[in-house]
Amino acid sequence: MGVVLTSSFLFKAARGDETDAQAPLGDRPSQAALQGLVVAHFMVGNTYPYQVADWTKGALHGPFQFNLRSSDSAATDILLASSKGIDAFALNVGRDTWQPARVVDAYTAAVNSNTNFKFFLSFDMSSLPCATVADAITLRNYLTAYRSHPHQLMYPTGSASGTSRLLVSTFAGEACRFGQGTLQAAWQYALRGDSRLPAVHFVPSFFVDPATFGGLQAMDGSFHWNSAWPIGNTTTDFKTDELHHKNLGGRTYMAGVSPWFFTVSGCSRLFDPGC
């Protein structure tokens, strides 16, 4: 039996309470007006081989170790995460045809957990294709499927109507074009190019120069993936965080925190002496 530690990456997602999150750049809420959430990044792509029995016969569970395989085991992880002050899982989804079924399991488990635990989708664009117009269909199908789910994490607009939008993120995606000419046009088309799509609050992790954020109005914020660890043999500081803040102009900022970030796959006697 293998053990996959899939959710040792944490990040903080800012949430607006007073101002419309989709307003023009100058009208969006400042960071000072935002309330923080803590969510755990969850690799759905590591979940295929596991059965319920795998998690009841000695698989490890600790403060930040989560494994998603079935509704029952996912419910256990939801209760564990919730007990540690984690508000939601960011479900990292890739191109495997079986992954949508695992996401269904996750949302079903949340209902069965009798908690207020949430999920939101983080599209892994290092895996999902994104060159053609047709490639946007997979993303749109996910958005449509969970637009009204009670355990979907929503971003409140702060408007009088009380409406809110689906929180959506990515890993990478700066090379995507979806048949369009620019990065801005690509994501505007993919997530907002059809009036039947639900409204989203889009906070991707694009590996681009933050100085370009002003021209990327399809972004409602930025998830700074590499804020969680030093790049090279250096000490981590807040310089790159400050650069993101400066160039976002009041849009949402997600900061990464990584107590540990690794995966063990296959049989390992360190975790399972009987494997």
Automatic annotation (TrEMBL):
Taxonomy, superkingdom: Eukaryota
InterPro entries hit by this protein: Glyco_hydro_71 (IPR005197)
GO molecular function, one term: glucan endo-1,3-alpha-glucosidase activity
UniProt cross-references to Pfam families, sorted A to Z: Glyco_hydro_71
Protein name: Glycoside hydrolase family 71 protein
Species of the source: Asterophora parasitica
